[in-house]
């Protein structure tokens, strides 16, 4: 018999056994790479969300306090766009929103501020400290402020997310793993957004307010990061989609 066998203390394995072992190692290497690629492709894409941490920029525009603080920045004259203003939601550093009640003195007036940009898709936000917002008395505009447009009564299914984390500060800032963080952010005043993932077309981002248009941060805490159905009146104001509904009518989905 000429069968090869390997003695462990020998320096080299017999040629036939060595060839077969190399084949097994190559096969396993290819299999592992292929399996890793399949696993990566099977994962849901996180999405392109950006927080320009450490890069503070200057913004000038019209401050709007309600339903949640935001800034209307006039777009260049002569540039054909459906809206005359770019809209930036405004939030404070860390897990806090800007206090609308203490900033009403700026409502409808030009302000300048320095803050950090946060964005995802066509949604934009600026993180700014209240002390960094100041009146800009020298600024005026001839462009009329956007009118509110009623879009009707809608029934939508989606998930409540905290806008700051989802738009860029955390990635991914959604679903059950992010519930604890999202709840803290919304409790701290970050605007709650109802995220609706459409089968065709981009996702919808709707700011949640009560039937009378007031913030609902404290009322929605028990619903964060759960599949929900909400029926309410939708309007477009200042470039933002707003969903008016009583949180008591929100319906959990199985």
CATH fold assignment of the largest domain? OB fold (Dihydrolipoamide Acetyltransferase, E2P)
- Helix run count: 3
Give me the strand/helix succession.
HEEEEEEEHHEEEEE
Output the structural class: alpha+beta
As laid out across the biggest beta sheet, the strand order is: 1-2-3-5-4
**How helix-rich are the residues, as a percent range?**
10-25%
Overall geometric form: elongated
Strand content: 35-45%
Q: Quick one: how many beta strands?
A: 12
At CATH level 2, the architecture of the largest domain is: Beta Barrel
- Low-pLDDT segments: 40-46
Give the averaged pLDDT, no decimals. Answer: 86
Radius of gyration: 27 Å
CATH class descriptor name of the largest domain: Mainly Beta
Please render the helix and strand layout as text.
Elements (H helix, E strand, L loop, with lengths): L14 H28 L6 E16 L5 E5 L10 E7 L18 E11 L2 E5 L5 E3 L13 E14 H7 L9 H9 L4 E5 L7 E6 L18 E10 L2 E5 L6 E2 L2
Parallel strand pairs: 3-5, 9-11
Antiparallel strand pairs: 1-2, 1-4, 2-3, 4-5, 4-6, 7-8, 7-10, 8-9, 10-11, 10-12
Summed up:
This protein is of the alpha+beta class.
Describe what this molecule looks like in 3D:
This protein has 254 residues and is an alpha+beta fold. The protein folds into three domains: 34 residues; 87 residues, OB fold (Dihydrolipoamide Acetyltransferase, E2P) (Beta Barrel), CATH 2.40.50; 104 residues, OB fold (Dihydrolipoamide Acetyltransferase, E2P) (Beta Barrel), CATH 2.40.50. It is 17% helix and 35% strand. It has three helices and twelve strands, in the order αβββββββααβββββ. The strands form two sheets. It has a five-stranded mixed barrel. Strands 7-8-9-11-10 form a five-stranded mixed β-barrel.
